[in-house]
Amino acid sequence: MTLEIKDLKKSYKDVAALRSLSFSLSPGRILALLGPNGAGKSTAIKIMTTLVPPDGGQILWEGRDILREPRKIRDLVGYVSQELAMDKVLTAVEFMQFTAGILHLKWRDHRDRALQLLDRLGLKEAQDRQIGKYSGGMKRRLDLATALLHNPRILILDEPTTGLDIEARELIWSLIRDFTKEGGSVILASHDFQEVQQLADEVLILDRGVVSQSGTPQALKEQLGQFVVRLQTREYMTARDQEQAAAVFAGQTGLRVLNHDDTWVALAVQGESAMSEVQGTILSHLEGADLPVFSLNVQHPNMEDVYRFSLRGDS
Ligand SMILES: Nc1ncnc2c1ncn2[C@@H]1O[C@H](COP(=O)(O)OP(=O)(O)OP(=O)(O)O)[C@@H](O)[C@H]1O
């Protein structure tokens, strides 16, 4: 079943947290939600998990607007929030039983699934220990196990692996992949480009409450260019150095200045040229303008480039 989000909006008094958010997500797909602090990601997630009512918009599932049926949303969605709110005295199994009660699930029907999930997330040995004695990584894994207890079709994860070691991250990533193999859909808010690179089938970048870019990671990278070049004419470039260097490339076919207000000047290169050819072209342009070269880096764009340059509004 495809999830369709249509024109969600939310303001807090005079702060327009979410101006307009629309996307659709098919079964088995992972959508990464990126954006700087304050972009509106948490607001979007809170609406999609019924924690906050929107000012407008729709969430369609099987053609029905389920915003009018919060109970249906809670059945469909498993949610792992940024902040962990867990009892310290309960054991993991007791915590899952407690959660089952809140969700009106019969524990005797869900106990086996709970134990399987704890095992799958590497918590079997610790399942009868008090959560207060768990490490941060163990708590996160327990949170994910709990979010999956009612067998949701959609998993919404707000920075699920922040601060975790690589083993815990990979365990969580593999569980997310398994969830999609069984037809589940995932919405993942993350600031971690490696995580996005690893998991996302689709990426949506929010900026000041609106979608600034969306598409598959491959399409977004291709849209940026074949290569991203970062160059310095000297180690500490002044604003004037940057403008001078940027001016050399302004209007050149197949070259686009991405920015020149950082420690380097960044360019996007379109076309099919080999990396060495691109390097040669850049160097000859700089030489032609009588500018020195301190450093030159040419690479295929990655998700961080897509993100960085989409927010500047110049890609
Ligand atoms: N309860 C609230 N009351 C007033 N303003 C709020 C509230 N919640 C969020 N905002 C504002 O709405 C805007 C969007 O915030 P939101 O938390 O959705 O962003 P975010 O993309 O999740 O940021 P972060 O990456 O820091 O979690 C911000 O300007 C924020 O200050």
TrEMBL record:
GO terms for molecular function: ATP binding; ATP hydrolysis activity. Residues 3-233 form the ABC transporter domain. The keyword Metal-binding does not apply. InterPro entries: AAA+_ATPase, ABC_transporter-like_ATP-bd, ABC_transporter-like_CS, ABC_transporter_ATP-binding, P-loop_NTPase. It comes from the Bacteria. Keywords: ATP-binding, Nodulation, Nucleotide-binding, Transport. The keyword Transport applies. Belongs to the ABC transporter superfamily. This is ABC transporter ATP-binding protein.
